[in-house]
Amino acid sequence: MLDADQVRQTVAWIAGEQHRDGALPWSAGGQLDPWDSVEAAMALDLGGEHARAAAAYRWLAGRQRADGSWAAEYRGGAETAPGAESNHAGYLAVGLWHSWLVSGDEELVTGLWPAVRAGLDLVTRMQLPGGAVSWALRPDGTPDDLALLTGNASLFQALRCGLALAELAGEAQPDWELAVADLGTALRGRPEAFADRSRYSMDWYYPVLGGAVTGVAARDRLAAGWDRFVVPGLGIRCVADRPWVTGAETCELALALVVAGRRDAALEQVAAMQHLRDGDGSYWTGFVYPDDARWPVERTTWTAAAVLLAADALCGASPASGLFADPWALPAAGMADATAPVDWLAGGAGRLHP
Fold it and tell me: What InterPro entries would the database entry show (predicted)?
């Protein structure tokens, strides 16, 4: 696994990819999408780099459109893929709640609450009959008819984090409560509401990771896809029919395994993907194992972030570890004064293990 120095090195690598204006792209000078930027910012908060995480969130808030959406991609601060996707609109809520749990930064929550509210209001407007949420807006501003399971599972978590922030802000959001209830029902019992992308591993584990599927159902779901996606000793395939393992998906599976109560299996997966670690603490995106080749030839902030989030969920080092370890038990507003240092950075944990 990772020792404290390796964690610091990975956090420092992510920080080194951040731009001076706060933008946190896949890698320095590369593309930025809002979802992955939030994930990388969460890792900075875990590593004690709260000012950097806050700068990344403020950068995103400063680029939110009037309808609550963000562009699908930015480069150099400019929109390069102008589509509006629901999962991008929702995920700031997860990052901001995570940041509050780690830092207790009231000023950040107060400043970014309007952006979270606008984003989740858009998500609820994009909800389709039957509970699923549309993937994207059409050019005329109406939601399309495509609903993706992974994106919806992420939005289930985002809406719950948004409700926790709403309680903190003292602003009830009954529309979000109704939306997340209908969405949870769709995720658990209406597979026909979502496009068939079952060859992708994310559609396998994300309903568990997002908190919509729990308990015995979660364990059964993960067991059913295990042999299809898991490559022993290497991690998991991103796509079932391709000999390609990816680090972020492997660590997200580890998060889902923690939710399902399979901590030993989660630890094995985080350990298995360490072959993707580079000497500077970064992580390669993936590995084509028949060719013994890294592909794509890139090291991404969000892959490194997924490693740290999984490690935190496993060892419970930060006040935010339960956000992923137990999604159904989102902390109540008012408990976020827990600002204890992350143990692995304070010298209290030694190695990352449950």
Answer: 6-hairpin_glycosidase_sf, 6hp_glycosidase-like_sf
